[in-house]
Request: fold
Amino acid sequence: MKFARLQNRSGVAALTLTTLAVLTPVALAGPAAASGTKLTHAQAAARLRAAGISWTSSGHCSNRNNRRCTSFTNINSGTIKGIITFKKSSHCAVTITGGTETGHASGRYSHWKGYKVDIAPTTCVTSYIKSNFRYVGRRGDGAAMYKSSAGNVYARESSHWDITYL
Reply:
């Protein structure tokens, strides 16, 4: 058997296995692959609504460029799938309080880039996270972090759970 390390145009590394002149590509999974595609606000809202997930906005709006709004514009489909899976697994009522709108911290896996949502910290939600995910320490801002077996990180901020879906 012969292995070759290749890189595609987007810079994602891949391994190929050559056996008897047959090439079989094996892509390395990572956050970029898991995040899925970018959704419009309407597409994400329809999926959330169908799953029984609600959201709230202090400004009663969905403008991505207004920090008082809750927007899903350019959210990753994997993030929407993740929060829907969380609701189904936990059997908790889930209310999103933050999406991709401006006003959140920047970074590689930020709200703006579609990897995060904030949810209301109900007793059911908090109990489920603490009982089912592994405590992994505190972030630089002091938020307690819990990690799911899928690698998603749930950080308990002062007024909500900040969830990163990779």
